[in-house]
Amino acid sequence: MEHAQEHEACLEQTQRYCVERQIYNQELLQGQLHRRERTPQTLRQKIARSCRCSSKKAKSHLYSFLPILKWLPRYPVKQYLLGDIISGISTGVMQLPQGLAYALLAAVPPVFGLYSSFYPVFLYTFFGTSKHISIGTFAVISMMVGGVAVRQVPDEIISVGYNSTNVTDSLDYYSARDIKRVEVAVTLAFLSGIIQLCLGLLRFGFVAIYLTEPLVRGFTTAAAVHVFTSQLKYFLGIKTNRYSGHLSVVYSIAAVLSKITTTNIAALIVGLTCVGLLLIGKEINLRFKKKLPVPIPMEIIVVIIGTGVSAGMNLRESYGVDVVGNIPQGLRPPTVPDIQLMRAVFVDAIAIAIVGFSMAVSMAKIFALKHGYTIDGNQELIALGICNSVGSFFRSFSVTCSMSRSLVQESTGGKTQIAGALSSVMVLLVLVAIGYLFEPLPQTVLAAIVMVNLKGMFKQFGDIMHFWRTSKIELAIWVVAFVASLFLGLDYGLLTAVAFAMITVIYRTQSPQYRILGQIPDTDIYCDVEEYEEVKECPGIKIFQANTSLYFANSESYTSALKKKTGVDPCAVLAARRKARKRHAREKKAAAELGKKATNDVEASVKHEIANDDLTVNGKFASADAGVQDMSLDECKHFVEAKTNIHSLILDFTPVNFVDSVGAKTLKSVIKEYKEVDVCVCIASCSGPVMNELTRLNFFDNIVTRELLFHSLHDAVLACQVKDRSASQ
């Protein structure tokens, strides 16, 4: 043990470097370096190059657009097929009940949730790059779709319209409302898919970075509250209108409470029983995760039990329990979405497109990092766009990645997109063959499934304490995203949260940390003098650092902090000089008047006294006058023109990423102002892109030269010390 410690100590002693070189400023360094010659391409050449096609390039683009052509021929059947089959079946049995349940959130009949669980999932197999995410219905997106559908087709409008045509059958009334809402949901899916497809083709996959983790978590937590309140009416068997837009949560809760006395006891008992079974099943799956070969599919078990109990006891007729109802057998022929609705839902489509992509790509990145492969964000956009736009022709609404199903697909041994394809095949079997068996399924069972699946989202309330300890700004983003989405609706709430997140970025750049750096003795390392005891300031040199770029929004605060931290304000120094000069001029004038008065007194006395006797007196007066003048000259010498004990100021540009025209003018003004008070300003560690920006902004002239810029802080410090020694000699 002692030998190992000695070896480590020896290594620490030997790990040193010593470089002897001259001090480099940018002028000197650029003079010794030779730039690589680059022939700039014209716009025509760039277009011609991008349009040029070869067999290799065409093959690369084809494989990029259809990833299945790349991985399917190399699919290891013996190693992957069994895992994909088990994973596909496990995910499929979750896909079925969730598709039925989330259709209620989207304000469309349950069968359309099955369509959304088949077409997009199958299409993603061909175009997606993630091997583990499960595409399909998701609570947050379904809730956003339902909010738009209810806003465009509220109950009151349909009711008034159809009462005027003497349609009294309640089934006709609801079917008419549902048909119109399906049109809205389908058009929304088509438009959001087209937006995603265009963003992907234009390589705009980076837009998801503006949805930060605190924003997404606050938004999804608020969405969970929206989902929970929207399911209360189904869970309790209460007949209320569905609300959307501002304060929809408040109106929904108020509507439920106002009719709480009409609760259907049978529906409540069935719902509570299902909630209990689902929670028990999830707890068993969590505790015995390693021992169970596959998770217990409690959702499909609850659906089967609920359907059997409802059919056996005739809950609809005997107790008035609402059931799923008609599930048409087979697939619908493709139809074109309603183009006239696009203008009304365009903004909502943008929000759904971005949120859907953000959730899918974030989950895909987690699995890709865990299993050691890469995903293409732009191709994910294209894949989601195709899933939504093409699926809309077959009456599916907007979809994205489901977190719960993705975790099941990955944990049950899924290796490739084949697992997702198999899960869609299971949904297809239900649509084609056995869909009618689920018609007696009580809606309260679907509400129970949705509510229990929100458990993970409600746990995100714990983020408040986490962000309180780590970052108050991220906590503010979370709270704003939650509150805005809760009370303004998911669409306007998301826009508000994104705007607030952008404001926090501006706030951080406008309110950065300013530091004075000092040197660790006998090293070229510089740290904050207020943080470490060993760090000492270089005599006569101030090193100023701001951890932000310099641009129009923070240039004024940058200058103010520079003067405050260094203790040198050129304007105050110059004002003090002017004031001292004026005072000196007044004193000199007063001394001259005093001398003149004394001379006049002497001349008056000469007239009344003998000249020889008064010579000495005259001489005394003369010496007194000279003494007054000498005192004023001494005061002039004693007058200090506001000199500081700082001869050099170094601006550390290591954190600076860019400088705009206002920042360049501010920087130039700082250099000239400090030069007037005999303080030389240097810039250290300026990156190449920032140097190019300064050059384009005509920053350099006869006064501000490249000699003031240094490659490193240590170069700048040594240069300032050499310059000071030369000036003192």
Automatic annotation (TrEMBL):
<dbReference type="Pfam" id="PF01740">
    <property type="entry name" value="STAS"/>
</dbReference>
<protein>
    <submittedName>
        <fullName>Prestin</fullName>
    </submittedName>
</protein>
<feature type="transmembrane region" description="Helical">
    <location>
        <begin position="292"/>
        <end position="313"/>
    </location>
</feature>
<keyword id="KW-0812">Transmembrane</keyword>
<dbReference type="GO" id="GO:0008271">
    <property type="term" value="F:secondary active sulfate transmembrane transporter activity"/>
</dbReference>
<dbReference type="InterPro" id="IPR036513">
    <property type="entry name" value="STAS_dom_sf"/>
</dbReference>
<feature type="transmembrane region" description="Helical">
    <location>
        <begin position="100"/>
        <end position="127"/>
    </location>
</feature>
<dbReference type="GO" id="GO:0016020">
    <property type="term" value="C:membrane"/>
</dbReference>
<feature type="transmembrane region" description="Helical">
    <location>
        <begin position="475"/>
        <end position="507"/>
    </location>
</feature>
<feature type="domain" description="STAS">
    <location>
        <begin position="531"/>
        <end position="720"/>
    </location>
</feature>
<dbReference type="InterPro" id="IPR001902">
    <property type="entry name" value="SLC26A/SulP_fam"/>
</dbReference>
<dbReference type="InterPro" id="IPR011547">
    <property type="entry name" value="SLC26A/SulP_dom"/>
</dbReference>
<dbReference type="InterPro" id="IPR002645">
    <property type="entry name" value="STAS_dom"/>
</dbReference>
<keyword id="KW-1133">Transmembrane helix</keyword>
<keyword id="KW-0472">Membrane</keyword>
<feature type="transmembrane region" description="Helical">
    <location>
        <begin position="184"/>
        <end position="211"/>
    </location>
</feature>
<dbReference type="InterPro" id="IPR018045">
    <property type="entry name" value="S04_transporter_CS"/>
</dbReference>
<feature type="transmembrane region" description="Helical">
    <location>
        <begin position="418"/>
        <end position="438"/>
    </location>
</feature>
<dbReference type="Pfam" id="PF00916">
    <property type="entry name" value="Sulfate_transp"/>
</dbReference>
<feature type="transmembrane region" description="Helical">
    <location>
        <begin position="341"/>
        <end position="361"/>
    </location>
</feature>
<feature type="transmembrane region" description="Helical">
    <location>
        <begin position="133"/>
        <end position="150"/>
    </location>
</feature>
<feature type="transmembrane region" description="Helical">
    <location>
        <begin position="249"/>
        <end position="280"/>
    </location>
</feature>
